[in-house]
Amino acid sequence: MSISGNINNYSKPYPIGIIGGGQLALMLVEAAKERDVKVCIQTKSSDDPAALKADKVIHADPLQIKGNKTLIKNCEKVIFENEWVKIEKLKQFCSEVSFIPNLDALNPLVDRISQKRFIDKLNLPSPKWLSISDYANLAAEDLKAWKFPIMAKSFKGGYDGKGNKKISCKEELDDFLSLNKSEEWIFEEWIDYEKEIALIGSRDKDGVVRVFPIVETFQSNNVCHWVLSPAETSYEIDLFAYNIFSSIVNDLNYVGVLGIEFFFGKSGLLINEIAPRTHNSGHFSIEACNSSQFDQQICISAGIKTPDINMNSKGALMINLLGLRKNHSLKIQDRIDLLSNINGANIHWYGKSKETFGRKMGHITFLLNENNHEKRYEKALSLKKEVNHVWPSPYDSKK
To answer: Taking the model in full, what pTM does it have?
Structure first.
């Protein structure tokens, strides 16, 4: 049953256009349908996840400006599945369409170097970093401050563990430098953190900021495997994280949904990365909150009154279903059927045409109603064990 609230009159066929057609776009389309908002997407293939449910599909590479132009002609507002867009080329269309977030707000967040410079400008806490060229020019005395291991991160396009490389010694560093162009990577100090947490929130056109509960994320081979909401944190850490979020969105005059990944440990709370979009760590919100991260983005973009965020349960567990090896003993449909039999399972299948190793094929969410974090964590581990018996993490299983 759809939710009413789309009260705007539109001059173009589609209130919202999405550049991109992957699983994030799919869940945005699903949220739009709940609001009776029609969506047009631009994506390469009719087999892409969002293309299966969108009201209209423009078959073009999301980076293709001709396709962008067609999308813009058909849509009142344009939003982004991810930040890998050609901002300077899109700026020529600013008089024809409103981008959410606006391109000036998006621009400092599109790659790791611009993000790092923006974070430094606001004097927000994050790991020490250098471009490779700056690292190569360090004086011998300054070089001593950089201890192994160090983390190399790609300048653009890193996600799900891609574009990250741990460098443990001088020999590995020399090998890395001999194989990679300096302008494509940065170096970051290695952080021995206790946990990884994430905060997703939104800011509407009136400047109202809304945040979801802070979550703890658990990785396998640098890929998010599961998420527990809410994380076990202190009031002071929560307040600091909320203030960081507000500082970022207010400084940028950012409108829309944004996520921040943090490290937490002996060095305190450090920003790992900023995601100017909906984010994997917020998928729990579809079942666990009255308004999901995707609903927030649709409401803000379509001009619908945006709900304040409340949990429907005391907590939630979200587990990513990552692609397994070709010789896995259970076929996909058999796995889905078995997962469906687990009490409380909410399965989201992305409809991807091919299962490849480590690829995000879907996710599964459980609501947790235990009264404290320790009990919710124990329940989450029990449910995760049950899920992983059917669908293990590909990085924990050699099957």
So the answer is: 0.95
